[in-house]
Automatic annotation (TrEMBL):
GTP binds at L6, S7, G8, K18, D60, D90. Mg(2+) binds at D90. It is found in: Cytoplasm. This is Probable molybdenum cofactor guanylyltransferase. It comes from Flectobacillus rivi. CDD domains: MobA (cd02503). Its cofactor is Mg(2+). The lineage of its organism: Bacteria, Pseudomonadati, Bacteroidota, Cytophagia, Cytophagales. It catalyses: Mo-molybdopterin + GTP + H(+) = Mo-molybdopterin guanine dinucleotide + diphosphate. It holds the Pfam family NTP_transf_3. The keyword Cytoplasm applies.
Amino acid sequence: MNGLILSGGQSSRMGREKRLIQYHGKTQEEYLFELLSLYCEKVFVSLNTNQQSDYPYIYDAFHELNSPLVGILSAFQHEPKQAWLVVACDMPFVNQETIQFLIEARDISQKATAFQNPEELFPEPLITIYEPSIYPDLLQAYQQGRKSAMRVLSQQPIKLINAPDPQMLKSINTPAEYEEAIKRK
């Protein structure tokens, strides 16, 4: 299984690259790279073509779509036979417990193993293990102009699990949310 740090978004609401924000005394990119390296054969950072990284990276290959689906598809294009443990760079509360819980719950007979978002009760696509069998479904969604990885997950046989702590799944997207997250650390 490979790891993928989703970092190719525009960060327009935050006003700066979310992967470079520090929550743990290091950038999110560095923190998540080190964390995923404990569990994955290889770890990559998903980047848009305007970004650079000192870590192994995969540039987004599907430019027409502004969606996390682009990074996931690009990872599968890079290594289609590998499972991908995907984590978004804007989730500062993801820790070893989160990753360990997800991996222990993994069901390779399903197309993915995902946490259920506790607020909206849908599969949380931004911290999920995607099995190689889901790649054709993701590609078909892209080809049909659908950009929601969550919708693809909702329409596939996946294993859905509850997070031991819903806070683990919180995304930080604005300066106000960042300030609030720093207070909780």
